[in-house]
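Annotators were shown the component list below and the corresponding predicted structure, then asked to write short factual statements about the assembly.
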Amino acid sequence: MDPMQETPIITSRDNAKIKYACKLAGSAAFRQSENAFLAEGLKLCPELAKGTTLKVLYYTERALEKAPELAALPGEHYLIQEHVAEKLAGVQANQGVFAVFEIPQCSVDLLKAGGRYLALERVQDPGNVGTLLRSAAAFGFDAVILGPGCASPWSGKTLRASMGAAVRVPVIEVQSMTDTIALLREKGVACLAAALYNSQLLSAVSQQQPGGVCVVIGSEGQGLTQETVDACDSAVRIPMTDRAESLNAGIAGSVLLWHFRGEGL
Amino acid sequence: MDPMQETPIITSRDNAKIKYACKLAGSAAFRQSENAFLAEGLKLCPELAKGTTLKVLYYTERALEKAPELAALPGEHYLIQEHVAEKLAGVQANQGVFAVFEIPQCSVDLLKAGGRYLALERVQDPGNVGTLLRSAAAFGFDAVILGPGCASPWSGKTLRASMGAAVRVPVIEVQSMTDTIALLREKGVACLAAALYNSQLLSAVSQQQPGGVCVVIGSEGQGLTQETVDACDSAVRIPMTDRAESLNAGIAGSVLLWHFRGEGL
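Structure shown to annotators:
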């Protein structure tokens, strides 16, 4: 940005750019058609800018005073008044920093022999999707596959829970989980369903999967669909004492990811 | 309960028993002086009753219709009107089942050579304390030690996140973490601080700890106090790629607990 050029100010909540940003925040379908998402946060926006294209950045005077480094970020910049920030945030308490980013485009073409993948089916809780994206990035996974019924990785809640991991690990949204599993198996990637029935104990499954591995995790309440379990090579479960009925999906998934972590970790 | 005897009904929000229950829900100090806590939930209350003494059970007509098995639980029983349930819950949306339970009394006398322990210091988030209690129970730990500054294990939020694990794994609240670590080390238990500085990679630490192990975890933001790190035998960290800055405390702790899980898991 040219430092001599003054940052334009948006004073109206009805400004077309603000309405557009709010629509991105509220509608997964609109995000998909625009190939863009809105994020909020003094720390989160600069973090996301490292991994994907920042298109437009909005900040309040208050935020800029607290974090002058915002001015150095790429993209179009706009100063916004506090009441405009409240509209973007949907709540009064907000950090005064918002940005529209490009959704990184990733397809199943990325999937390859020897890769490490996490696939989620019907994981509806944005906190769990975010946590699992973060763990997948931390433990050296090559991509996360999101099947039907999952929380959007580009919603505010998921972005917060993932701490921006969605732009650091490729996210591939697919229509059919069984087709994707078939594709992975053709490439020799071992597809392991997290399921209780007919499953091996995780501690008995080798951490080394030279052909690659895809850990497939289902909904918090109902688990995976039977077709998805059937499409996989085999099923695994985390052994537990009888003092616990179950684990939270984010925890169980992270333990599975840790088990199959990348080499050198 | 004598089935011939009719369950008394509480119709007033100002009933002394209701006020007492609300005070238990709101004050950690009162819970400690009364040695009792209040829990809410159609599934959670029966679950807790398996692990500790149920003193008083409150339910609405609606809840009893949905779960007639409530009538078979031990303790004193009271039917409550909906507006009384709202007072107990603090919110309108509630499941209409509440119970006062005895806090299981556990002390450092339980700590023994060869045991597996989790110790938390300044873990303030009730969700993280609850999650870690649940993982400790699932992975065969013998007790959880709560040092100063931790979220109360007997608050509503922690009880929900723990799914009742706090009565299935002994919880020992201690005043001094360094004294407790010294006591464990005297018994030959290896005390491992979760810390970044001067630490070994978890993958390089043997899962077998024949003398016993205590995993010590600190606050989400600041980690452990230096005195606590210094009191431990050594420090461990979870190896991560550079695509993640950190893990959520509940996730990181659960991965550590999984690594040091009980035999046969």
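Statements collected:
1. Chain B is about 30% helix and 20% strand.
2. Residues 126-138 of chain B form the longest helix (13 residues).
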